[in-house]
Design goal:
Chain lengths: 385, 365
């Protein structure tokens, strides 16, 4: 099986590291290996790299550099935002109510569930429409003065739908409730200016946009109440202790530069391929449905359900033909339970187990998509026969 | 694809299936690993004998080392319906099932084989200890493994020609000790696990506790009587006892008593001394003949009445295509309804069926 072709169509799961990103990281493993807390020249060099990286990202997000906290990735950023803010808001204001959408990544939803179960917060879910989108009106109905935190995903990983973040942020602002958004999937393609988004907290993770795995950041607007979840030497303004992972932080910043430079090019290229892919599938594969919004979606993201097709089997057959796809979230293989996201959108459990996510990236070609579509059509016919 | 063809190997993370995978790769097949995710009781997932997250990790490691694709096939619901439900029904109906037979019939050579065929595999391999030989008439015969102590032809007697046609048992000609050595030679990352005859979904627990937790049926106490009708005590519900059981009967007596029969109609447990558990004749229903119905209605055969029983000499009388009466040369103890009787001529497995009390008992599908 060694020489079978491998076509990667799972860029929402992770992306390959870009060469300039890797190049930027390499000196900081061995030559410039210092600890930024040290007084000496090694420390100074490391601190310089750290602050330089912070400035790059701050300018991309249009925030102050001291509003950025480096973390081990999107999951830690989400955890820190939810737990840190919920506990601080309870301590300072007695706020005990958490409001999230039902289409959050597990990094948010499982954290919120733990806050409810173990820490006694009252967890409430917003409603979503059949595209998986929240509505500002619904948020206005559910938000309360004792809401500790609202968290709404910017663009969903499973269905690609893009939520109206600025509109939701405005409502949270009226109620003086901190507003967090998971922008892990959005970073490569959507506006990330925190002043326009008007959020208080924003999570990003480098490996979704050609950076390394294991590094991310949380934007925390000045004066947002937050408790550290990792205590120690007081790094990152005491919010996230631990020696900063300099090579990876440099990689994150370099990946952000890479996004800034090529984003428009990617969007144009991928949106065209994605639209071709979606219309081919809907026209040629019977009983197929697009999940998520047809236009308010990530430009590289196509997701479907196919009536009567077991998605685990579909993924296996696609893989054996050399096509790497996903059923939605990369974290669920081997234990197929219907996706909470699809169930919240009103899909039946059976249909929810027939999902396929195809996510494109900068190296995806027209030819790859054509070959993929030919195989997909054949495989689905085979499964249904 | 290499010219030997594509084979799907059923992997469990254990040493046997891992060595099979390595042998197949070495022999030049295009190998694809598949692992069944079977049903586990809620809260007992980590105790399941063959598909814990730990075994999954082991199987994945082996596949990664061999550089073969590996997929987990979810069979939770299928396994529950085809194996666990009938397992409980059988106990409630007073018989002692062997769920491995149903699993082989419906899950391994059912769902898993279907998956293998669907991806276009030419062959299907498992780590069972048994040997297959193809003859000129293009029929496949099943033989006992070279390692007598590991032979698993007993649980494979449910298979037919269509199942066996494309099946490979790569370690049937090896001793267990040789397989262990091969695992070391191949440097396979398999853990040293004790072999176990426990049922996978009981996870080492007692089936009685399992029944209490998983069935809605009430367990009705009744009388324990001897063959003469003397009441010796009270039982806690017939499903909690098996034929031949001596311990925990709760009888006050100086001499040991053994369960010889479970009478569902009167809800009584019939016990006797060791001698009364011996039987020479019994009926077998739902017989599967691996190579078709034998030509003669009377055959001299070897009979195995339990997985761990020795092969007993006897004669069988075939009085319907799938019904047989067995006459053992010497009486044997604990002939248990619901267990399989499997027939051999020399090393060749002819087939087998389920032991029943009476010739007209329901036959097994």
């Amino acid at each position: 099986m060694k020489n079978r072709p491998r076509i990667y169509l799972d860029y929402s799961a992770t992306t390959p590291i870009a060469q300039p990103v890797l190049n930027a990281m390499l000196p900081f493993f061995k030559d410039e290996f210092g600890n930024p807390s040290s007084i000496h020249i090694f420390g100074q060099k490391a601190e310089g790299a750290l602050e330089n990286a912070r400035n790059t990202i701050a300018s991309f997000l249009n925030c102050r550099s001291d509003e950025l906290i480096f973390t081990s990735g999107g999951t830690e950023s989400d955890n820190l935002a939810l737990r840190g803010v919920a506990l601080a808001r309870r301590k300072n204001f007695g706020a005990n109510h958490i409001l999230i959408s039902p289409v959050e990544h597990h990094a948010v939803s499982k954290t919120a569930q733990q806050l409810a179960k173990i820490f006694g917060f009252e967890l409430e879910l917003l409603e979503v429409d059949s595209y998986g989108l929240v509505s500002p009106e619904n948020l206005r109905q559910k938000i309360r003065h004792d809401t500790a935190l609202v968290s709404i995903i910017y663009a969903n990983n499973e269905i690609g739908s893009i939520n109206p973040i600025p509109e939701c942020a405005k409502i949270c602002r009226e109620f003086s409730v901190p507003f967090h958004s998971d922008a892990v999937q959005a970073t490569a393609y959507l506006p990330l200016n925190v002043n326009i988004l008007n959020v208080d907290l924003l999570s990003i993770g480098a490996h979704k946009f050609y950076g390394p795995k294991g590094i991310g950041a949380l934007y925390v607007k000045q004066h947002t109440p937050i408790l550290p979840m990792q205590t120690g030497g007081g790094q990152e303004w005491g919010i996230r202790s631990g020696t900063p992972n300099i090579p990876y932080i440099v990689g994150l910043a370099e990946a952000i530069k890479f996004v800034e430079n090529y984003q428009n090019e990617w969007i144009e290229h991928l949106q065209r391929l994605r639209d071709e892919l979606i219309s081919y599938v809907l026209e040629n594969i019977p009983d197929s449905q697009l999940t998520g919004h047809p236009t308010l979606r990530l430009p590289n993201h196509a997701s479907f359900v196919f009536d009567g097709v077991d998605s685990q089997k579909l993924l296996m057959l696609l893989d054996l033909e050399g096509f790497a796809c996903s059923s939605g979230s990369a974290c669920k293989t081997g234990n197929p339970l219907p996706s909470d996201v699809l169930l919240a959108m009103g899909y039946s459990p059976k249909l929810a187990l027939s999902s396929l996510r195809v996510t494109l990236g900068k190296d995806t070609t027209q030819e790859q998509i054509e070959r993929f579509l030919t195989s997909l059509e054949k495989i689905i016919a085979k499964i249904r026969s | 694809m290499r010219k030997k063809g594509t084979v799907v190997i059923a992997m469990s993370g254990g040493v046997d299936s891992s060595v099979c995978a390595a042998l197949l790769v070495k022999q030049g097949y295009s190998v694809i690993g598949m692992m069944l995710k079977l049903w586990s009781e809620n809260g007992h997932e980590a105790e399941n004998r063959c598909c814990t997250p730990d075994s999954q990790r082991l199987a994945k490691n082996v596949a990664a080392q061999l550089d073969i694709p590996f997929y987990i096939i979810d069979a939770k619901n299928d396994f529950y319906d085809a194996v666990v439900t009938p397992f409980m029904q059988d106990y409630l109906a007073g018989i002692t099932p062997n769920p491995c037979l149903r699993c082989n019939r419906n899950i391994r050579w059912g769902l898993l084989l279907e998956n293998a065929q669907q991806i276009g595999a030419d062959f299907f391999a498992t780590g069972h200890y048994a040997i297959l030989r193809h003859n000129k008439a293009q029929s496949v015969r099943l033989f006992r493994a070279r390692d007598d102590t590991k032979d698993q032809s007993y649980v494979l007697h449910v298979l037919n020609q269509r199942d066996l046609e494309k099946t490979l048992f790569p370690i049937g000609n090896y001793l267990k000790s040789e397989v262990r050595q091969l695992a070391i030679d191949f440097k396979l990352p398999v853990a040293v696990r004790r072999d176990s005859q426990d049922l996978c979904f009981l996870g080492g627990g007692d089936y009685r506790d399992f029944l209490r937790r998983n069935t809605q049926e009430p367990f009705i106490p009744g009388k324990i009587i001897d063959q003469h009708g003397n009441v010796l005590g009270e039982h806690q519900g017939l499903p909690f006892y098996t034929i031949g059981q001596r311990k925990n009967l709760g009888i006050n007596s100086t001499k040991p008593h053994y369960v010889i029969k479970k009478d569902v109609l009167t809800n009584s447990l019939i016990v006797g001394d060791k001698e009364t558990t011996l039987k020479k004749e019994f009926f077998v229903n739902g017989v599967n003949w691996i190579n078709g119905l034998p030509k003669h209605s009377h055959l001299r055969v070897g009979v195995k009445v339990r997985y761990r029983a020795p092969i007993l000499n006897g004669t069988i009388q075939i009085y319907a295509e799938n019904q047989v009466r067995v006459f053992l040369d010497e009486p044997y103890y604990d002939i248990t309804p619901g267990q399989a009787a499997v027939f051999y001529q020399k090393e060749c497995c002819l087939g087998g069926g389920l032991i029943t009390e009476n010739a007209d008992s329901r036959s097994e599908g």
